[in-house]
Amino acid sequence: MKNPNFCGNCKELNITEKEQDQMGQAGKEFPHKCELYGKRVYHLDAHPNIIRLPECIKATEQAGARDCSDKDPRNP
Ligand SMILES: [Zn+2]
Fold first, then answer.
1. Are 13 and 50 in contact (CB under 8 A)?
2. Which residues sit with Cβ closer than 5 angstroms to ligand 1, an ion?
3. pLDDT surpasses 90 at 33
4. Which residues pair with residue 1 across a beta bridge?
5. Residue 42 CA, ligand 1 centroid: distance in Å
6. Which of 41, 42, 49, 45 is nearest to 17 (CA)?
7. Most exposed: 21, 25, 27, 53, by fewest CB within 10 Å?
8. Distance from the CA of 71 to the center of ligand 1, in angstroms?
9. Is the pTM of this model over 0.85?
């Protein structure tokens, strides 16, 4: 299986998983959204990770410069 790409602590997230946790029950009902692309992002079956948008991954690959995540989980 291909290694999926996650949002991590991306600054473009309206709310990170950590912030959601801190909000308690209200946080669970607060959807994650990518502010850069204006779209919802989902955990799907990757919780607590958040799946990056395909266009975000594509843009990063093409630019080769912009790193979406503050921290790469594979390389902390
Ligand atoms: Zn979440």
1. yes
2. 17, 20
3. yes
4. none
5. 8
6. 49
7. 25
8. 17
9. no
Which amino acid is present at 35? E
Cβ distance 18 to 58 under 8 Å?
no
State which amino acid sits at residue 69. Answer: S
Six-digit token pair at 46? 């990757």
Alpha helices per DSSP H over 1-76: 17-23, 25-28, 54-63
Q: Which residue has the tokens 């843009």?
A: 59
Greater confidence (65 vs 24) lies with: 24
In the block, tokens 């955990």 appear at 43
For 40, the enclosing helix (H) or strand (E) is strand 39-40
For residue 21, the number of C-alpha atoms closer than 13 Å in the C-beta half-sphere is 6
- Write the CB contacts of 73 (distance below 8 Å, at least 6 apart in sequence): 6, 8, 49
Confidence (pLDDT) at 76? 47
